[in-house]
Specification:
Blueprint lengths: L23 E2 L5 H10 L6 H10 L13 H10 E2 L4 E7 L6 E6 L5 E9 L2 E5 L3 E3 L14 E4 L2 H15 L3 E6 L9 H12 L11 E5 L3 H8 L6 E5 L5 H7 L2 H4 L2 H15 L3 E7 L7 H11 L4 E7 L13 H13 L4 E3 L13 H35 L1
Parallel strand pairs: 1-2, 6-9, 9-10, 10-11, 11-12, 12-13, 13-14
Antiparallel strand pairs: 3-4, 4-5, 5-6, 7-8
The structure holds S-adenosyl-L-homocysteine.
Length: about 400
């Protein structure tokens, strides 16, 4: 039955076995798929809405779904799962209250999410993949490589787990955590629709932002989804020569094609594009770069968000000083480009993309190496004692 789900439901991907147990992971399903699921096991359709809204309220087990008959709850335990993400680590910024979560998934992988407070409410930054394939030279997410895509329910699950843990209602979502959203297109779009659902989290599309490293086919496809989700593009360079050094994807998709796709996106959605630009000392932060960037973006409905590059252990880039960032911003503004300088939230808790996961992986590796060293030491001492026995 699992493979049939999602065939007739709009937005259904049929990607529903998330936890490797063979059970159906219900947070992956939209209402239509849930209805199919329930009618498939001889239940009434309305059970779908009940379960969907329990999931949206953060229920982590069927036992919490108290308006379902006990017998149904028992049946569901055999067929399906709703288990939430487990908080493996949580860091709270003493400076601004930003919370960084390291979540454990059912298969043992770990991902990161961040909760930030702005004047207009709470924003969750969610991951779309376990690791990343894109290889950007300044990014911690890419260093440990790519493991797998997250399912729609696992992306949603990050918001549910954050709400459950913190007690706040998330009203904005940015898909700017670990991974490249357009490299996991179907699951990300399904997640956006799930999060928007009235019976679910009910987050407006205009309160959602997807950030891409510039996968042009994904951008064009996204423009045709018929929703007004904000698009952010990690540009980080004012010409292809610099960009391809920083971002391998720059060799495949040139800046002029990205700008072309951005124009199409703004025309179709009426949304302003945000270009992210991490300023790296001596690499992309000259005043000529600023003028070149302004020329590229002239006439486009957009905003440039300047980010002082975040230091990542093992990567030697240094961020441009405050003065240079302000000079860079001034040139853009003078040329009519709306520009902001990103507030550095959670700088004391390593809030930049992928850094907590990386430190966890390094810690695990360290422990493994220590164990291996212990094992080989004990193997050696065994060998010694054996040889001594001879
Ligand atoms: N793959 C997507 C989203 C994930 S990264 C993308 O590329 O947009 C989220 C943002 O953080 C991107 O703009 C990325 O370029 C930026 N980023 C990654 N590492 C950074 C660092 N060390 N300093 C500043 N920004 C960084």
């Amino acid at each position: 039955m699992a493979s049939d789900l999602g065939k007739v439901c709009p937005g259904g991907s049929g990607n529903i076995n998330a936890d490797g147990s063979g059970k159906i992971y219900l947070p992956d399903l939209n209402i239509c798929e849930l209805e199919e699921f329930f009618t498939g096991i001889g239940q009434k359709k309305y059970r779908a809405k009940q379960v969907f809204s329990w999931i949206a309220r953060g229920a982590g087990s069927f036992d919490e779904m108290t308006d379902l008959p006990l017998s149904l709850r028992e049946e569901l335990k055999l067929l399906a799962s709703v288990s939430g993400l487990k908080v493996r680590k949580k860091l709270v910024s003493a400076i601004d209250g930003t919370v960084k979560y390291l979540f454990g998934l059912d298969d043992g992988n770990v991902i990161e999410s961040v909760l930030m407070e702005y004047i207009h409410g709470y924003t969750a930054c969610v991951s779309s993949q376990v690791g990343c394939k894109m290889g950007c030279s300044f990014c911690a997410s890419t260093i440990a490589g790519f493991r797998r895509n997250l399912t729609a329910g696992e992306i949603l699950g990050q918001i549910l787990a954050i709400q459950r843990d913190s007690g706040v209602k998330v009203n904005n979502v940015v898909v700017m955590g670990i991974g490249e959203p357009f490299d996991n297109y179907d699951n990300v779009v399904k997640f956006l629709r799930l999060a928007n659902s009235h019976d679910g989290l009910n987050i407006g599309y205009r309160h959602m932002t997807v950030s891409t490293c510039g996968l042009v086919p994904g951008m064009l496809r996204f423009a045709d989804e018929g929703f007004q989700v904000n698009l952010a593009i990690s540009l980080h360079a004012s010409n292809d020569r610099i960009r391809e050094k920083l971002m391998p994807v720059g060799r495949k998709y040139r800046i002029d094609k990205i700008i072309e796709a951005s124009k199409i996106y703004t025309e179709k959605t009426n949304r302003r594009i945000m270009f992210e630009y991490a300023l790296i000392e001596g690499v992309n932060d000259s005043l000529e770069n600023a003028a070149e960037l302004a020329f590229l973006l002239k006439g486009l409905l957009c905003l440039v968000n300047l980010i002082p590059v975040n230091p990542v252990e093992g990567i030697s880039y240094r961020h441009s000083g405050r003065r240079r960032i302000e000079e860079f911003a001034a040139i853009l503004k003078e040329k009519g480009i709306e520009t902001t300088i990103r507030r550095e939230l959670g700088s004391d808790i390593n809030a930049a993309c992928g850094q907590l996961r990386r430190s966890e992986i390094n810690a695990e590796k360290g422990a493994e190496q220590a164990n291996e060293a212990k094992d080989s030491a004990s193997a050696e001492s065994n060998a010694v004692s054996k040889s001594e026995c001879k």
